[in-house]
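Suppose you are handed a protein chain with no further information: no name, no annotation, nothing but its sequence. What can you learn? This example shows the usual starting point.
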Amino acid sequence: MVAIKVAERANSIEYAIRDVMDNVGYATKNGKKIFRLNIGDPVAFDFPTPDHIKNALIDAINSDKNYYSESEGIPELKQAIIEKEKKVNSVSIPQGNVVITSGVSEGIQMVMSSLIEQGDEILIPGPAYPPYISYSKFWNGTPITYETIEEENWQPNPEDIRKKITEKTRAITIINPNNPTGALTKTKFVKEILDIAGEYGLTVISDEIYDQIRYEETFVSTSKLAKDIPVVGLNGFSKVYLMTGWRLGYVYFYDQDEELKKLKEAIEKEARIRICANTPVQMAGIAALNGPQNHIIEMVEKLKIRRDYSWKRLNEIDGLSCSKPEGAFYVFPKIKDIGTKWKTDIDFVIELLKNTGVLLVHGSGFDPIYGSGHARGVFLPPIEILEQAFNKIEDFMKEN
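A reasonable first move is to predict its three-dimensional structure. Written in structure tokens, the prediction is:
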């Protein structure tokens, strides 16, 4: 029998949000009801895709718009994105500077593969959405996480960014609002990061997929503040437009001096290799952007009630503490007894699941440095489900 060799880069891939589900079988076999607080999928709960978006998909299929579309994206969708970014985020983008992707994750993959050579470094907020770390490693680069300060509601530490820049640094990443902490990066810190990027001649990558899901603080797009600093923007339809399983996103290039021209051309080549994003879904994306937007207000109002409840409950449980999420739909509580009662946050998450059926994600999966000792959960379920889950967490903490 021939032993098939697998590339080391494939063996090294991790995605904590879904990897943790390997442990669900044990809890299910032992009769536990599973409270799936691990995946940020509002559509899996009581946030259905708006009817006008679903109908646009059906109409596209029925009218035979089932062909390969332009690799960089349908022009009408790119134009709708440009208008949305101008209206919502006050960012001006030429149509030629937008590439449609199969979700933001594909956009991250394309950006990382086009930027990174062997040994190159990407600065990423700690903690961060896992694909930024995984794809950096996959393309033989080194993800370097910079400090975000929990006691300051996870705001970035610009001095830590500055001291971690080396001759190998290619870009600085901002995730705003942040996944997994729910933090909104304050404007003054975004400006400081942009100033640092300008000083060292670095590109800024700005992931803004939760741009319209925020509660108290005002969100300001990185590109609005950038002036002459080049920004690669990442956004998509999964969260705000409740199209998670449809896989539709985009990369745009804010580039006043055409410093990103070669990067844009490289990403366009990658788009051609994979042919195109799903054509009927792109047609639905046009309807999402050009159609009624009232579902966003309703969603945020409903989420704010669940955010307030979850944050309050977590801080009432002995052994846990949690900063208040300002955007997205995540809580990222600190587990005080990691290192004593539980050796690692992974051990905590697995033991909690096996004993209670509550499924969270270990914080170290979002960064082994700044995420360690935490767990990420979502506050997407209705209050009655959240109440059951938090009651089980509270009982578990008391018993341990």
